[in-house]
Design a protein that fits this description.
two-stranded antiparallel ribbon; 10 helices; three-stranded parallel beta sheet; mainly alpha
Length: 254
């Protein structure tokens, strides 16, 4: 029996899942370097086909993201069962490779576009204001830093004038006194430029198990807000990267 958090399943399920991913990444569309967003989008297409063939609905996070055009990034693709299977296929000459630089720049471009108001199409390219960004973090570790480092990438590395994320909501069971990243507070994130210091009073950290908090928060959001049109950011990655490049070139000339 294999356990992932509070989910238990037979070992054969793990082997069947490994075989499924090894089979699909043999496809021609996978034979190149790509961001993890591209990889997950391609995988989502095949998982959705599998869902429909089995008469299932709303069972897969990957399939849902593919349908709604949501880009999915992972900070450490090699630290996973999928990463191990990709590595195994590489021994056979498979050309699939993950591009971490694309992940870093694409995630930064999404945040910058949000801060410029370009996500909703109302931003004026090149203007410094017009929108806000928020991070909603379940847990911690590498994914937490990967999400928050978008602002240091924009400000510190690319030299683009920015102030940090406007809203910080974290669900965690990690304590801040141990000094690890998982328990780091919004106040510490300010020191790295990850969170706008003027917005610090609005930051929220809730010390509770994510499997308890997420269903409650989801139910609240669904009850209080009407359904919105998907932003389909996956299809807009080139557009958002163009905005990032435009501001980066402008910062280099200063």
């Amino acid at each position: 029996v294999v356990r992932i958090y509070d989910i238990f399943f037979d070992y054969s399920v793990l082997l069947d899942t490994d075989a499924f991913f090894r089979r699909i990444i043999e496809g021609e569309e996978f034979q190149r370097p790509m961001s993890t967003a591209e990889f997950h989008n391609l995988c989502g297409k095949y998982v959705l086909e599998r869902e429909r063939a089995l008469g299932l609905e709303n069972k897969s996070f990957l399939a849902a993201a593919y349908e709604l055009g949501v880009p999915l990034y992972t900070s450490s693709p090699g630290d996973s069962s999928i990463g191990m299977n990709v590595a195994a296929k590489a021994l056979q000459g498979n050309k699939l490779a993950f591009d971490p630089s694309a992940d870093v720049n694409e995630t930064a471009s999404i945040v910058l576009a949000a801060k410029r108001g370009a996500i909703h199409g109302r931003g004026d390219r090149g203007h410094k204001h017009g929108g806000k960004s928020a991070v909603f973090i379940l847990g911690g570790g590498s994914p937490k830093n990967f999400m928050l480092q978008t602002e240091p990438q924009i400000q510190e590395v690319l030299g683009i004038d920015e102030r940090g994320h406007d809203y910080f909501l974290q669900i965690t069971d990690a304590r801040p006194d141990t000094g690890g990243l998982s328990g780091a507070t919004p106040g510490e994130a300010v020191s790295w430029g990850k969170v706008d210091p003027d917005r610090l009073p609005d930051a929220v950290v809730c010390y509770v198990d994510s499997t308890i908090a997420l269903p409650v928060i989801t139910a609240y959001a669904l009850a209080r807000h009407a359904t919105r049109e998907p932003k389909r950011l996956y299809e807009r990655r080139t557009e958002l990267m163009d905005l990032l490049m435009e501001e980066y070139r402008r910062s280099e000339r200063r």
